[in-house]
Amino acid sequence: MQIIEKNNGTFYNYRTQEEFTIWPRMAVFLIFSIIISFALLKEMPDFLNAINNAVSILLGFSFSVLFYLASSRKDAVAETDSLEKQNRDRRLTKLSNELFYNISYFVIVALLLLGASLIIIIPDAQASIVTIWRLFFGDWLIAQLAVLTRILSFAIRSCFFFLLMEAAFTFARIVGRVNFLFEEKMKGT
Prior knowledge:
The protein is mostly helical. It has 5 helices and no strands.
């Protein structure tokens, strides 16, 4: 929960320090995820496999940036440096700390996305389970469970598309912030 709070705290105007609210973006993502879930009711294993591959690669990139941030962490600012350098070092340290939470949040969202994707894939891979259930419980219970399964499937698909949009947004934001961090670090060398 702390990672989510710290990530949400990184949405602010750099000049005024005024925080931005994230809830309008979340509401738009939620609405679009429901619409997409209605539009794409057919099975989509190829799409899910592609998403799983892409997210796995982005997770690897994210971990490499996390390790870079952890290895280059500098908490103290040298008092012997000029005021400008001290101020710059403080801003870079703050940005590095914020990036740590942004990337950690992305890792959480990406892992949830992979989990939702695997849950969506499971019924395709486990079709024989319905046959076994039918032997023990009969067709009536299977018919009743089918309605619940459709509702649950729609909810999971909606969560999947919400997480997909959130992961894409978060990753794009991370890339921009990492580029800014590297540009700022290269200016000082």
